[in-house]
């Protein structure tokens, strides 16, 4: 990847960011906020909100996140092999993917991928 | 002194300056994706309605075509406010980040090449094109995969219970389907031996479409893409009956407009990446300009996504996660290892260059 492509990425980010920023903040100059307590309350199907939004949530999201991080590294290591499979040994990547599948199988069998 | 300004002169001036050139490329991509999003929104409403024996929008404009403009005006003139419980800075910046990141993922899609080939005398394809660089697929996917972060930030910062639950659901779904998505597009990378989307399309000019050569990967990629775009049957993140609208419940006015727009930009980019990877991108039999082919194929893929949305009910969250982890990941991983053998056989029979 040459230096020139970095300019292209920067230009895409610049244009997207500038248009997004303009679309969000320019109309504010023409509208007058008239806040009321009801308007600023979080939406809870028309009821008065109960407590804060910082509620406890399922620990299972954490399990999936950890599994994702571990497997994503395996997948990232498969990318160079996919480009140059004609020039490199296949043993490491087959072993890595096999280990990943074994871990998915173990997770499944143990019931950690079940949504309780 | 010759001070006459001609169109060719302007184009030559722009082509000599690398910043202006790539800004022009970005503007071209923006125009294309804007037209694409408008068409998508119209298809989403009208085609979906017709499948369900409804009419969809009919009142504003001929066949309801101006309904989108009316909606945009309504969003733009609405009052702007942030909920009292929200983390104001993050809450207000998330729509901008969302649209920026979605737009940047269009970088790799060779719309600029197809536009340049419409004007062969003035725009030189090799200097005008920004999408033809080596890991373009990786860069596009990198921007595509930033969405879980944005969704989590948005859901957390808005300060509602529905948005928080919707944000966590979205993040769980997006990360679960990212692994099969990467594993499926890697089998196309194996066939083309390149991470450059431009070269992947060019390889398909001399071979069968990769949708045929890598058929299981095509199926797993399509399912994973549906989940990544959070479209029905995988729209549990926006399950209206449970979560109102998911992580973007608290957004209104222009902020909601940006979130909504970035969703459709993502749908457009995702369909265009699917078309480029598996269905030959700008290639087509008839003497129609490549731009029309690429655009038309993208819109057709999006129409199929709308069709799926109309035809299938929403899956439950345990079904969705089980499909991702127990079926898509094993199938795409095993197929990835088998793909080099397929490539070898296809090369022997002339189906792959």
UniProtKB/TrEMBL annotation, chain A:
Asked if the Swiss-Prot or TrEMBL record annotates the protein with the keyword Membrane, the reply is yes
Name used for this protein in its record: NADH-quinone oxidoreductase subunit A
The protein's predominant localisation is: membrane
Entry keyword set: Membrane, Transmembrane, Transmembrane helix, Transport
Q: Which GO terms describe its molecular function?
A: NADH dehydrogenase (ubiquinone) activity
Pfam families in the record: Oxidored_q4 (PF00507)
InterPro entries given in the database record: NADH_UbQ/plastoQ_OxRdtase_su3, NDAH_ubi_oxred_su3_sf
From TrEMBL, chain B:
Q: Which UniProt keywords apply?
A: Membrane, Transmembrane, Transmembrane helix
Membrane-spanning parts: 20-43, 90-116, 136-158, 179-201, 207-227, 264-285, 291-312, 324-347
- From the Swiss-Prot or TrEMBL record, state where the protein is found: Membrane
**According to its record, how does it sit in the membrane?**
Multi-pass membrane protein
Residues folding into a coiled coil are none
Q: Name one GO biological process term.
A: aerobic respiration
Give GO terms: molecular function aspect only: NADH dehydrogenase activity
Q: Which InterPro entries match?
A: NADH_UbQ_OxRdtase_su1/FPO (IPR001694)
May I have one GO cellular component term? membrane
First and last residue of the signal peptide: none
Q: Which PANTHER family match?
A: NADH DEHYDROGENASE SUBUNIT 1 (PTHR11432), NADH-UBIQUINONE OXIDOREDUCTASE CHAIN 1 (PTHR11432:SF3)
Entry-linked HAMAP family? NDH1_NuoH
Protein name (Swiss-Prot/TrEMBL):
NADH-quinone oxidoreductase subunit H
